[in-house]
Amino acid sequence: MMVHPTARSTASDFSSLPLYKHAHNQIYPSSAQSSMNFRQSSKPAALFDPETGAELHRHPDLWFDDGSVICRAEDILFRIHISQMCRHSPFFRDMFSIGNPSNSVLGSSIYSKGGPNDFENCPLIELHDKADDVGNLFVALYDGPHFGNNDQDDFRVVSGVLRLSTKYLVDSLREKAIAHLSTAWPSTLKGWDAREDVARAYEMETGTSGARLYPSPLAVINLAREVDAPALLPSAFFDLSRYTYPQIFDPCAQDPLYYPSSSSNSPSPPPSLSSTSPPPPICLSLGDTQRLCLGKEASQHAITSLIQSMSNSQSIRNSGLQLQSAFSLTHPLTHGYTSSLSGSMHQSGHYHHHRSSSAAICISAAACRKDFSELVDLATKHYLFDRERGYSDPLYMADEIGGLKSEASECKACAKSLETWAMRERERIWRLIPTWFRLGSDTGSASPERTSSPPVVDI
Fold first, then answer.
1. Region (Disordered): which ranges (predicted)?
2. Mean pLDDT (whole number) for 436-442
3. How many CB atoms lie within 10 A of CB 185?
């Protein structure tokens, strides 16, 4: 950032300008010549950088005639109000309080040609930021943040606002931007499920992968590192781990992580605001690349552990029964069949509650054992061998497994048992994600846990 001091223009300098003459000497032009001069003088002058000769452009919406400061970002000029900047940003408030802006006016830093200067006595501040980001920040300061649906276009706007609101200490905008991004990159399992529901709806509506709705998790990870927003990291790393290594590090045009240099679906920006160079490739730091590899391996191990635990639960009945009993007494989702579990414990001499219902009693032990064996074989083939949808997503896999028996069996007790186990496993997996990716305690990491066997009902 740089403020350019120049000499102040005098009243006599203004009197030589056509616009000054018309504004002060002739309100209503009396001749065609004076009318033509007025039209010519009202056209803004072309602006150039005297050092490079590059043309500078006034922002079409953020150039206010009564603005008291001009901010330059790349080749775009913003004429805004010092009071608006100082109101929201302690950074700008302190900067303007140190010096007298009236003593730092435009001059040699910008050259005008073909018309009068319409920014006399305005200080110039050079911002070493992207023009699009600066524009989005100023729009949010004037009109308030109006974010979209967390798609790729919305992310470009929100990330710019978050980046500069962090840099210039606009805390209110920073908090709103992080809260908005957290709906797509949540810190809770409930929020993650809501995010995935939106992605599936997008997939059904457009016929394309739901992953194309959201921005690249690579960009989200880098943004979270840049602005110190660690709450966004666990879901971003987990989302990235669901892709293959070639899709992450060498994507082709068909991969969701591939970003072409231009998008035909996006509206073209004004020529003065568009960039001619393609965006740089998105890469992770060495440390985050290592975290990705470690977490991706842990995620794959979780999938095999889930399948293995389904198999083990059929042969270790006593362990599973004790697990279900302890879980059913504390989990609100299992209160519907606590009484029948109590009856089972009563038979073993450990509990003394009356068996009031037989709703959770397996109606066909042999058939259910066969069903569980077939489910294990099906999951092994689908996720481990055929690598079908969900093979790299333990949360998706656990959700699918939890509903398989209810679709293939009439035994509601065993189906409920499997569903409850799957729900608990999904919660356990979610708590472990920060640990998988070595993200530390600031993201809510948990200590390692063992995969439990599905609770077994009384068969």
1. 259-280
2. 83
3. 28
Tens digit of each residue's pLDDT (9 = 90 or more) over 304-317: 888 888 776 543 23
Q: At what angle do helices 394-408 and 412-436 cross, to 10 degrees?
A: 180
- Angle, to 10 degrees, between the axis of helix 189-206 and the axis of helix 394-408? 80
Write out the two tokens for 298: 């842990």
- Give how far Cα 219 sits from Cα of 222, 237, 244, 273, 396, Å: 5, 11, 17, 22, 23
- Per the CB < 8 A criterion, the answer to whether 269 and 247 are in contact is no
- Per-residue model confidence as pLDDT tens digits over 209-226: 888 899 999 999 999 999
Strand order in the sheet with 124-127: 2-3, 124-127, 69-73, 76-80, 55-63, 46-48, 111-113
For residues 281 and 261, is the Cβ–Cβ distance under 8 A? no
C-alpha separations of 170 from 33, 88, 164, 167 in Å: 50, 6, 8, 8
- Domain range annotation of the chain: 2-128, 144-261, 300-443
Would you place residue 355 in the very low, low, confident or very high pLDDT band (cuts 50, 70, 90)?
very low
With H, G, I as helix, E, B as strand and everything else as coil, classify residue 458. strand
CA 413 to chain CA centroid, nearest Å: 40
